[in-house]
Amino acid sequence: MDTQDRKIFVAGHRGLVGSAVVRCLQRRGYRNLLIRNRNEVDLTDYRAVATLFRAEKPDVVIDAAAKVGGILANDSYPADFIRDNLFIQSHLIECAYRAGVRKFVFLGSSCIYPKAAPQPMREEYLLTGPLEPTNEWYAVAKIAGIKMCQAYRRQYGFDAISLMPTNLYGPGDYFDLEKSHVLPALLRKFHEAKQRGDAAVTVWGSGTPRREFLYVDDLAEAVVFLLENYSEEGIVNVGTGEDVSIRELADMIRAEVGFAGELRFDATKPDGTPRKLLDVSRLSALGWRAGTSLAEGIGKTYRWYLQHAAELRM
Ligand code: GDP
Q: Where is the site Important for catalytic activity (predicted)?
């Protein structure tokens, strides 16, 4: 069968990652995409997933479905984060294996690495120390997903690969002020502050934590690249290899939005882990690198936000 004719189930196609994966597959000529809305197939319901796989028999599964959120959401809803993610990924992996799926792509997260891991973080640092407490529930679920993929590969020869993206942002992101991640939250805060003519914008924490940000369409390119070129047990980091402080990020967003006021830091909000930067040498050695700079990606995301602000779930 022609590669582009394989039936690819993109789980979580309405999310930030899934929608970018769908765009990327379409750009690359994949013609046979399988997508289902949440009201058609609830991925936390094993029977619903099993029925879908029996009926549709996809060749490839890209698991971009997850319950995700920023630092406060993770800290406030630990049960939701560990349960929903364990359910969704286990159902997808098990049903894909049973239905004879030929390739499974699992998406993890850079928060699977220990809080005190040396920076940049290499793939082999997995399970070498305690996790960051604010998102350990999500991280433990994702680690279980990685291990499940590795176990199914070892025991059944199931071709499951796992990618660990760094902090993502881009079109289709979630712009809630309380529950979203820092980049979309700050874009919205600066935008609304500018509209209201506020004197200052409040940034959570101290501004000193450092984070790496990957434009989601770049991640989607990496997903398709590894889908086509990688078939091993080892996890693969996906990032840019560069980080910025939250203060630097806030300054970039302030400049993009054109907000003239000042920054204030709210020390009552958590900083989270001090630094999160991936070592991307494994992916570089395979021949892939990110193409979008942070400034360019912030600009594209802000333009998308301006076009969609009215209809966003906020
Ligand atoms: P993390 O990478 O898991 O810590 O998740 P976040 O993207 O939520 O937060 C990254 C960093 O940005 C943390 O140090 C936050 O305290 C900081 N931050 C600053 N302002 C904001 C904001 O408005 N929303 C969020 N979510 N984080 C913020």
A: 109, 111
